Amino acid sequence: MSLPLVVQKFGGSSLADADRIRRVARRIARERAAGNDLVVIVSAMGDTTDELLGLAAAITDDPDARELDVLLATGEHQSATLVSMALHALGVAAISLTGPQAGITTDGRYGRARIAGIEPRRVRAELEAGKVVIVAGFQGQSASAVGDSEITTLGRGGSDTTAVALAASLQATRCQIFTDVRGIYTADPRLVTRARQLPVISYEEMLELAHQGAQVMQVRAVELGWVNSVVIEVLSSFEDAPGTLIKEDPFVEQRNKVRGLAHDRNVAKVTVVAVPDRPGVARAIFDPLAEAGINVDMIVQNVGHGGETDLSFTVPRVELASAKKTLDPLVRELGARELTTDASVAKVSIVGAGLHNAPGYAARMFGTLADKAVNIEMISTSEVRITCMIAEADLEIALRALHDAFELERPEPIDAAVSAAG
Ligand code: ADP
Ligand code: ASP
Ligand code: MG
Fold first, then answer.
1. What Rg do the C-alpha atoms of the chain give, in angstroms?
2. Has this prediction a pTM greater than 0.85?
3. Domain of 109: which CATH number?
């Protein structure tokens, strides 16, 4: 008879050195002793991925995308083998597998591949042989890239996605994401000390927080969890404390309309100044950016004056150089005056499923920022969020003020009612 299957993922900070790897191994051994089958997904140790990116950047300004993915995947290979060895040292049978060995196939987009399918035959066989299976996160294999099998990576934070995808595919009874904080908070607890841990958050709200920069879960992992109804538990790898459940939330109507704040520093503002105000200009600017694979987010076109207008938008800060390279020749072609950029901006968002039918929340957000003399440079909204772009230097003041203004520190009565009943 097969045992209940638990999927656990350990992030980079949980595996930063040999001591921490041994600690993680002890935790895995405990779970194993409790009588569960275990598939463990690991990220690269500590800042390994950043260090590998730094090495590549020291070699060339424009590293080949294929080589970069093979390089980055090695970070996760290291930690997977070391966790496996640490388990052996504890007398626990274990084997490490790369993403491709675990049967994860992806599309061919190096650096941001999407999982196309999972055939976890080998994983199942090793489980049946009584082993804990350690899978290198963040990677897979694409058959389509050049007609032959190629290593791909899933984008920053991609081990979260490996974990949720494997949990769905193996129909795990639990999917646990161990990290360096106790769970999901009302704001990044490193910037807002008064942030409150949430016992539960809906997929929709977590997805929006992740989209708006809360790096604690990768966007794609939340999407996969939602589509496959995988309840995701986020919890600390350093202490035994209750975590946060990401799941369908039946009480969403009874909750605070604003559930949390997110912020994003990986953003830059681009303005095409005094571009002729005529049809086709937006297409001439945004088509080439799309072709270059650059994500454009907030867009503001000012009211035209004398046949000219300013067009501003944001791009990820890491893509600013390539956005400039794409746009510089166009500015001349279109007859615009100049291209200006500002990389010292940040986005701050209020997020909550109840926002769309709650008038007054935008005004409260803008008023709170005004009271702190924080200038709003751009605004965008969706059904479940309001986002303002501000100077990066104002970010922490803005987050703390918004956290107070929306009373996010205060526990929600519905949670007390649910835990009393449950
Ligand atoms: P890991 O290495 O485990 O994958 P990450 O660094 O990717 O960890 O994600 C954890 C970090 O996410 C936390 O240390 C915290 O600073 C940040 N974070 C941002 N927003 C939130 C939030 N709302 N709740 C919890 N953590 C958050
Ligand atoms: N090591 C990869 C990163 O740093 C993947 C992950 O940690 O999830 O982005
Ligand atoms: Mg992460």
1. 23
2. yes
3. 3.40.1160.10
